[in-house]
Amino acid sequence: MLEIKNLSVKYDDVEVLHGVSLEVGDKEVVALIGPNGAGKTTLLRSVSGLVKASCGETFFMGRNLNLVSSDEIVRQGISHVPEGRRVFYNMSVMENLLLGGYVRDKKERKQTLEYVFEMFPRLAERKQQRGGTLSGGEQSMLVVGRALMNRPKLLLMDEPCLGLAPIIVNMFAESINKMARQGLTILLVEQNARFALSTATRGYVLTNGKIVAQGETEELMGKEEEIRKAYLGA
Predict the structure, then answer these.
(1) Which of 3, 152, 161, 205 is the most exposed, fewest CB within 10 Å of its CB?
(2) Is residue 101 a contact partner of residue 147, using CB atoms and an 8 Å limit?
(3) Rounded CA gap, 183 and 195, in Å?
(4) What is the per-residue pLDDT for 114?
């Protein structure tokens, strides 16, 4: 479904990604792990069209995304859950969610809203509450729910569990597993390697803008020393 070939990205004259290649198959959950500053967020922003590649190509369902605007990428079926729980603080939960489905028609939004409330019942309970008054865990549910309102084929998740209590992290793991069982393709970016690898089927390790390890999650879990060195920059 998603194929990234030899991707390089620069901010001004500083190259952040150096020839990165990875693939995400249809209905697959793939983890991209690595230390802070490795380039994980930049990779997702590149797929979403928010930053332009200086080299390489990204294909989604066979279409070259380098030639597509960020707005059209959303319409093609890619939703991006950004790092940092970026809710619209002064808007209600319902208003936040409906904004996520702005490219879908009224009937689709209604159907998807029911799905989101089933996935995250807490949002249904808080639907008239302002986004800025929610707890950290509830805000994370809201940004994921907002992304789901686009009825995506591919969901990009950038550290959805950052700073959350273990009980909420476990809830998100269950939600991701449920979405995967229902056929959603997910690229999950995380610093929390244990959480990411226990949730995904395959994984990549990114450090200093380069892929340094990849494979089935069980295989990567057996490469603790290699992954530890990647996180420590050794």
Answers:
(1) 3
(2) no
(3) 20
(4) 94
Q: What are phi and psi of 35, to 5 degrees?
A: -70, 165
Mean predicted confidence (pLDDT) in 199-216: 93
Query: 3-state SS of the chain: helix, strand, coil percent to 5?
Result: 40, 25, 30
How many angstroms separate the Cα of 62 from the Cα of each of 1, 3, 33, 156, 175? 7, 8, 25, 18, 28
Radius of gyration of the chain (CA): 17
Residue indicated by tokens 């590649």 = 53
- Give me the pLDDT at residue 149, please: 96
The C-alpha atoms of residue 48 and residue 56 are separated, in whole angstroms, by 15
DSSP assigned state of 132: G
Q: Is 234's pLDDT higher than 60? A: no
Read off the pLDDT band of 187 (50, 70, 90).
very high
